[in-house]
Design brief:
With 274 residues, this protein is mainly α. It has 2 domains: 211 residues, no CATH class; 50 residues, no CATH class. The protein contains 10 helices and no strands.
Length: 274
Amino acid sequence: MASHYPSSTEFRKHSENLKAVTAALVQIERAHKRAIREGDQPSELAIRKIHTLLLGVYAEARLRKIIEDPTGFNGRERELIWLEKSQDKRWSSTVDFAARRHYRVLAHQSLDEVLSTAALARVEDVSAILQHDLAPVITDRNRIAHGQWVWQLKSRSENQFTIDQSNFDYNYVALRARFRLLDLIGRLVNVLCVSEPTFDRDFSSLMQKIDEAKIDLDGSSYSTFASQLRSRGKVAHEVGSAPVVNGPVVGSSKRQRFLRRWLARRRSVDGAQD
């Protein structure tokens, strides 16, 4: 049965791009967890950078799909957004045009002159999230993509470096939190663009989830996460190395049966998390 949701060639292609990027992220996350589980530090450090880079790619792909959603902007609004050269300015313009459409603010009017205090606060909250939480993702993506893996150049400079070096050493927990945050930011901006009642209904809930996602951005729980992951890997190795004949464990003990049941449950949980 054909879908009645409005579409366009551009929207379909950006949707396919986003789907492909998301699928790649799933594989990178699995490789990242495998490196942690196996204690392969060189691989883990390399994957961290690729993981960080791909999150920036995801943010851009998500924005392109939002902009081209046929239920959101008109052609002229899209043209004006695409005129912005940087990703962070395109995100900001997307929010500005969406707010004007949402609250029916004319082009020559200022948002703070027309919007109620509550409405203006919501728009400012979204803009603040872009500035404080999304902008670093874009900046990190650009620097990694341009080979600035240890020493970063100052903005718009080809020979002046920042004082401090950075290895973009975000661990798995921090990067996973970034992905959750990007997904929520994308949902928040998208509903602002396409649905006034949905934005009004879901704003508080999405903001609460965004605040919850920020808790793990510092990656402080990484040591506990890595320890648990390695422990599960050790148990899986024990179970996997047990001799099996026609299904049952040879000389099966209560411990071996327990380990098999435990491993089956863990695989189910890990699959759901992936």
